[in-house]
Records
---
Amino acid sequence: MATAALIREALKKARRYKKDLDAAAADNELDPPDFDAKCEALLPVLSREIPVHIHAHRADDICTGIRIAKEFGLDYSIIHCTEGHLISEILKSESTKVMCGPLLCDRSKPELYSLTPSSAGILDKAGVNVSIITDHPVIPVQYLMLCVSLAVKNGMDRFSAYKAVTINPARLCGIDSRVGSIEIGKDADLVLFNGDPLDIFTKVIAVYIDGRKVK
């Protein structure tokens, strides 16, 4: 609760600062507020120029993050979302973007008590825009496809799992016009495998960056 209060207070202060700046810009008789570096840093957040990552594990913390984001009209996504499978209907109704993971970790703190590799699949079936992450360097990024395999093994649709590490995160990052899917006009960044990408024995046989073979 204290963390949420601090975040809300900082955003309220920045919103008030922006209001005073706009008022001074519109009326020469008004003095602008004193420069505030902290408020200045939050102005692009309030204008949705910069997206917000809300790191939350527990369902109540996830809901708190959503409430704050709605209050200030933020462009946000939930990182980890460990208990998201318990509130999938809420996440769907709020059109919440979710980065699910890491899956390869232990329950080293109370917030991870409900950790399950089935979470991504449950969220996907509920219609949530879900991406799968490793939280690198917590879990090295080379284990990403292993995390995808775990999600599929625990009920996630295979095609949805591929989207969770391609077009979904590209859309979340606002770069889907260039990457995330194989389409005319996009960057020709391709990886070729000698078998099923989710099979542990499958090997990469070629890598192309901007259409040029690099491996």
Note: The chain has a mean pLDDT of 95.
---
Amino acid sequence: MKRVLYVADAGSIHTRRWAEFFRDQGIEVHVASFRGATIAGVSVHVLPTYGLGRLGYLLAIMKLRALARCLRADVVHAQYVTSYGFLAAAARLRPLVLTAWGTDVLISPRKSRLMRWLARYAVRSADQITTVAQHMNRAVAELGIPEDEVVAVPFGVDTERFRPPTVPRPAVPPLRVISTRNFGPIYSVHTVIEAVRLLREQGIDACLDLVGDGPLRGALEKQTTAAGLRSHVVFHGHVDHARLAALLGQAHVCVSPALSDGNNVSLNEAMACGCFPIATNIPANAQWIVHGDNGYLYRGGHAAELAELLAQAMVAPDLRERASVKNLQIVASRADWRVCVREMQTIYNRLAQSAKSP
């Protein structure tokens, strides 16, 4: 394989990682995207819609098709079924790998007939469907693709960057809690703040680091102030990977409060850093955590239940230590970035070879 074309959000960290990996393999990498970005050694082609709504989208399809004819890529990889996936399918690009990220197959097809039609058209046009988590394969099957033909390839974690700290974590108390999800409705970060309030109300010393940003930041800051937690909750905003790994290395517990998810990379990053995970009991998390064994699961949105589990984790150092060892093994075997990207490379090579065969 000499050339690959990504049809994806050029600004996404996941797109960047794929592009940079294959660039470093000596492969010519192109990205077609609705927004521009600078990726060293990678050609980014912006697909303008000129603010023309559906007509602009049609023009983008035509431009993408013309670009693909010019590039003659060995493999096209579209990310996110109901946007870039449909775009690549409508442009009739082949051979086509299509990756579902989560909402695009778990939620969007249930919102309207149009979204379901878009998703069905996209997945049926692809030569290979992949998902970022095993539990999503069934959702793809509901769109008309046999489940055994869908391959789960997680985004993966850079285990050289995300690993246990070289110095011991600070002593407990206080219990250092961290959440690294963005501030949108689906992530239910307000539940974590309320749980910390309940802990402190019970006389339990706990503090909270919030890493991320989003439309609900103002509301979450107001909630923190109203709860009297301003000196115990830190809003870090977005941070780079080095800073994130350092914060995870200082925290005792990482809470993943999302109400729905695809591949929970942030959970895997916390596990790789030896943080004790407490996550909502949804398929995306239950595939990684066995309740009471290597972490805890709770009902999403239930702050009192979360607070109780945080209190239990605080007084269970042996459980936290055993979970840390198990979670390192789990991430190494199932979520190591290098293992995941090599699996995708195998798919690329197979499709590229098949396309050349008479």
Note: The radius of gyration is 22 Å.
